[in-house]
Design goal:
Layout: E1 15-19, H1 24-38, E2 44-51, H2 58-71, E3 75-80, H3 94-113, E4 121-123, H4 128-140, H5 145-148, E5 154-157, E6 160-163, H6 171-176, H7 197-212, H8 216-241, E7 249-251, H9 260-273, H10 281-293, E8 301-304, E9 307-312, E10 315-319, E11 329-332, E12 339-342, E13 345-352, E14 360-361, E15 369-372, E16 379-380, E17 389-390, H11 391-397, H12 402-405, E18 410-413, E19 416-420, E20 424-425, E21 437-443
Parallel strand pairs: 1-2, 1-4, 2-3, 4-6
Antiparallel strand pairs: 5-6, 7-10, 8-9, 9-10, 11-15, 12-13, 13-21, 14-21, 15-18, 16-17, 18-19, 19-20
Helix pairs in contact: 4-7, 4-8, 8-9
Length: 444
């Protein structure tokens, strides 16, 4: 039976969290992970099962997944979630809304459980047939390399990783790991509903491919992997063509000089870094045309789903809905731990160079910190400036769009504005010569 390869980039110690449905695939993954733990390859295993509260038996299924973990004396957690009743971020089907809510719940749980330096590894039991189904669905939509690459084996997830060890392993081989155990997997009847495209492919199309071409599924899995390699090259090219260091803004000076195909590649790569769905191809092409012909005082926009990209001055800006859930003020007591300022906005400190314009001197780490929203009389004196100025004037001088200003978190140290997170540090809080330096970063 083939085994699953371990990527060299997995962190050590290796702390694994299995997202388990309790089904046969998840059960096989649990047994495999436990074997790796016994061999000393994995240092810690936890099982998390999500109860979507969609099916009348969903609570029982989630509990059974946790019981399976108990069979191996593995810690487990059952989490109930509410699936949005309307489309969110352009995802309108029940399946896509449930998937979105599930991963958001897992991301939030991992943040509460682990520190960024732990780099926890979320594992899901996706196998070869899952990969082929995803590849074929993307091909039927006319997708390019991003869609045809299907599911990556390893990708960043919050402060850690999302690992799919079994993408090259046939489903039957994965399930064989648990075949001899006295454990009954969950059987979700919705998996038999052929009105779902994925179920139709699984029940009707994949068996015919396998009967006609015995290595057909393996070959399609290899095609997905090759598309992933092609996508990596395209994203490397995008990093050369465009300044992608910031999630908030994309400078246009270099971007507008590129050929249209390379502009589209940069834009798609930037969008992917936000975890957003891709806009329709025709809409993206029209946006690029408008950027080319727009006058300096015009502001073309690309809108799709719940996302919006706008041009303002010499940059493209990623616009998000107003942060209505941000607290007016939140103490940051222990700077060795990350802090969740508002849903999706998690900050932590990282070491940096003294020359970093966003560096804060280490002498301030044991003082009282407060993360808060902007106030009318706020002023800042940036490094190299002889005088302080109002935030309104500073924002105008630095080309910060009006819709961004109210959403920038402010760090106050000992009742004085110290930092506009991601934008500027007041000179009073900059590191002194020879002093260790720290920078506030957002955990994506």
């Amino acid at each position: 039976m083939p085994d699953a390869p371990l990527p060299d980039s997995l962190p050590k110690p290796l702390k694994v969290v299995l997202a388990s449905s309790g089904g046969a695939d998840s059960l096989g993954a649990l047994v495999w992970l436990h074997n790796q733990y016994q061999q000393g390859v994995i240092d810690e295993i936890t099982v998390v099962s999500i109860d979507h509260q969609i099916h009348s038996d969903s609570a029982e299924w989630s509990a059974r997944a946790c019981q399976q973990a108990s069979f191996f004396s593995i810690e487990s957690h059952c989490i109930k979630i509410d699936v949005p009743t309307r489309g969110i971020h352009g995802q309108h089907s029940l399946e896509s809304r449930a998937r979105f809510a599930r991963y958001e719940a897992l991301r939030s749980w991992l943040h509460r459980r682990y520190q960024p330096e732990d780099a926890p590894v979320l594992v899901t039991a996706h196998h070869l047939e899952d990969q082929v189904e995803t590849f074929l669905l993307a091909a039927l939509r006319g997708s390019g390399a991003a869609g045809l690459s299907a599911m990556p084996a390893l990708t960043r997830f919050g402060a850690g990783w999302h690992w799919r060890p079994f993408l090259q392993m046939p489903r039957d081989d994965l399930r064989q790991f648990a075949a001899s155990l006295p454990l009954i997997p969950v059987n979700d009847p919705s998996n038999q509903d052929l009105s779902y495209d994925r179920n139709y492919l699984r029940a009707e199309i994949l068996p015919r491919i396998q009967s006609r071409w015995t290595q057909g599924l393996v070959s399609l899995g290899e095609a997905a992997k090759q598309s992933g390699d092609d996508l990596a090259l395209l994203e490397s090219l995008a990093a050369i063509d465009g300044n992608l260091e910031s999630l908030d803004r994309l400078p246009l000076s270099q971007f507008l000089a590129l050929a249209p195909s390379r502009q589209a590649n940069v834009l798609r790569t930037w969008i992917k870094r936000h975890g957003a769905l891709m806009p329709p191809k025709a809409r993206l092409i029209e946006f690029l045309r408008q950027l080319k012909t727009a006058e300096p005082d015009q502001h073309p926009e690309l809108a799709w789903g719940d996302w919006l990209i706008s041009r303002y001055r010499d940059a493209l800006w990623w616009r998000t809905p107003p942060d209505l859930q941000a607290p007016e003020a939140l103490p940051w007591t222990d700077k060795t731990h990350s802090i969740e300022y508002s849903p999706g906005k998690i900050f932590h400190l990282v070491r940096t160079q003294i020359t970093d314009p966003l560096a804060i001197g280490e002498r301030w780490l044991d003082r009282d910190w407060l993360i808060r929203t902007r106030r009318p009389k706020d002023r800042i004196q940036p490094h190299g400036s002889a005088h302080s100025r109002s935030l309104k004037n500073w924002f105008q001088e630095n080309g910060c769009p009006p819709w961004v200003r109210s959403s920038i978190p402010i760090v106050e140290i000992e009742h004085r504005l110290a930092c506009l997170v991601g934008w500027a540090v007041d000179r009073h809080f900059c590191p002194e010569p020879g002093e260790a330096s720290w920078r506030i970063e957002r955990t994506n």
